[in-house]
Design brief:
alpha/beta; 7-stranded parallel sheet; 41% helix
Length: 305
């Protein structure tokens, strides 16, 4: 299968492209920030008026996995107009172009569309209530994609892994600071279901190959607090977990509001795929194995041209 991946220089996009190339033909789309990668790269500004059609024409893909987004919460709050263009408008335009050209689309969304007020686990049938500009624009992106192409697939995700910049994931935040023996805060009242990016890549490729459509939760199968996430990582890497101060997200000084409960059910997706989704513990082992194998240095070695 020929797979076009947007946002190919990002944490998810690059890890996904490197993994997918083992079994598929991969074309990455990015704003000319990648060089030396072992897959074809198309330089494109997807916000240009005719960019979706031009990129699809150039790549001739069977499937598109749309990872490009303005994904950092604080910049979205500072620039809601750009967040709307990237997270809401662009996905709808890509979905419309995919429908016209017969390309299967997977759109990457977020668990943050929920406000965390539910006492229990969120399913795909639960009504979203976004708290931040990022979450609101991502929800609008979901809606635009499914309105433009009913055959499209929307995956709500939360993931961690090694990134090209070395500082894009929560795991890297804990690893970098604890390795430097710097104290950090770990939120005890934010529960989420993180997936290792390599596990998520496997899941997304299975979803695309399986011909799924509609909305799915594609997160890890184990809920835990961000504090517990940091402690588990510290223990696996032999770092000092005592440097992590258990803290509430309230009063943290963050501008964008965060949901307290982001427990998401993966029952619908695991049933559709006929297999259980990996949890955090499994993913942490793969994350640690990559560290031992020098993967962080490898992924940071691709020049940002």
């Amino acid at each position: 299968m020929r797979i076009l991946i947007t946002g190919a220089s990002g944490l998810l996009g690059l890890n996904l492209a490197l993994q997918a190339r083992n079994t598929h033909t991969v074309i990455g789309a990015d704003r000319c920030r990648l060089g030396g990668v072992p897959f074809e790269v198309l330089c494109a500004d997807l916000l240009e008026p005719e960019a979706p059609e031009k990129v699809l024409d150039a790549a001739h893909p069977d499937g598109l996995i749309h990872c490009a987004a303005l994904a950092e919460l604080e910049p979205c709050e500072a620039n809601p107009g750009m967040a709307a263009r990237l997270n809401a408008d662009l996905p709808g335009r890509l979905a419309a172009a995919c429908k016209r050209q017969g390309v299967r689309m997977v759109h990457i969304s977020t668990d943050a569309v929920f406000d965390g007020a539910k006492d229990g686990t969120y399913t795909e049938a639960d009504e979203p209530h976004p708290l931040s500009v990022y979450a609101r624009t991502k929800l609008e992106g979901e809606q635009a994609v499914l309105a433009a192409d009913t055959a499209a697939l929307v995956a709500r995700v939360n993931f961690f892994g090694w990134s090209p910049s070395g500082k894009r994931s929560l795991a890297e935040f804990f690893f970098n600071n604890l390795s430097a023996r710097k104290g950090v805060k770990g939120f005890t009242d934010v529960i989420f279901c993180p997936a290792f990016v390599g596990d998520l890549a496997d899941t997304l490729l299975a979803m695309l190959s399986g011909g799924l459509s509609g909305l799915y939760h594609a997160v890890g199968s184990e809920p835990l607090s961000k504090y517990d996430f940091g402690v588990a990582l510290a223990r696996r890497f032999g770092l000092d977990e005592g440097l992590i101060a258990p803290t509430s997200v309230e009063g943290s000084g963050l501008i964008a509001r965060r949901a307290h409960n982001l427990r998401l059910s993966v029952h619908k997706l695991s049933t559709a795929l006929g297999q259980a989704l990996p949890g955090f513990s499994t993913g942490l082992e793969r994350f640690y194995a990559q560290y031992q194998q020098g993967y962080p240095q490898k992924i940071r070695s691709y020049p940002q041209v």
